[in-house]
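As promised in the previous annual report, we have extended the structural survey to additional targets. Below is the entry for LysR family transcriptional regulator.
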Amino acid sequence: MKASVGSLASALSLSRLRSVTAVAEEGSFSAAARQLGVSHSAVAQQIRDLETAFGVRLFDRFNGTLCATPLCAQLCDIGARMREAEHDALRILERRGPTGKRRLRVGLGNSMPGIAIVNQLLRQHPSLTVSVESGSHQDILAALLRREVDVAVLPDLPKDGRFRTARVLSQEVVGIVSADSPTGLRDEVSLEELAQLPLIFRSQGSSTQKVVDRAFRAAGLSPEPQLIADTRDAVYEAVALGIGIGFMWRFGTYRTDTVRRLLIREIRSTVDEVVFALKDERNELIELFFNAASQIDPARAAGPDAAQDQRPR
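The corresponding structure token record, generated without further manual editing, is:
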């Protein structure tokens, strides 16, 4: 007796298609089960049920590995597209938090001026919630491209047709030194002076470190850092403890309690800190963030100490 269209459709469940795709990727029921977070027997049963319902063979075994048949490979292509659709659906649903409040996901390379924009946004729209992901320039760019954040704020963003951008402020990289440092450094120093002192660098992927590296190379200097830190907060804390001299974007933090900024003679050019989102990503929350960014006063967003630092160069 021929199975009805309805019964065949119910046999082709999303969970079974996930199992097929996982087994094809992993080559065994046990590895697929680990990927999916279910039992070995559950995956094996899903495959058997699908093969029985449609009278097909999905896998052949060669040297202990399950290999997808040509028909199965076609199913896996569909499974991959469905997985992308699931990811997009989750991305949309996650714009609301557990309490039902609308939620915006923001990626920040530096705490400031991004947090100043978030503050402006929440003051104007208190019914929103915002989740913030911080990381290196490289990490935040990747998170936006994977649509893991909705909008981001970064300095020195390369031109890229996939993004729409809005400038927030312009800034340069400065040195930071402990407020009670005995080095006797003036408020403006040269790279040659800095190269003789203990330095704290950021790890690969940091936009700040790229600027610092370029400047030292251009000056014919190659200092060895005393410490390499993977986050800007770690650099700040290490500087505050007196371990050495670090670097940050001039408006990268509102904090002024334990460090002071040093203008670097050879680093005179500024770069733009921009808000950006994917061009094809349009929704009300992203528009509200762009609008809040347009209202930011750069001097106030930078903090009192950084604002006072602005002098003719």
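Residues 103-169+271-309 form a domain with the D-Maltodextrin-Binding Protein; domain 2 fold (CATH 3.40.190.10). The chain has three domains: 5-80, 103-169+271-309, 173-264. These points will be discussed at the next consortium meeting with the crystallography subgroup.
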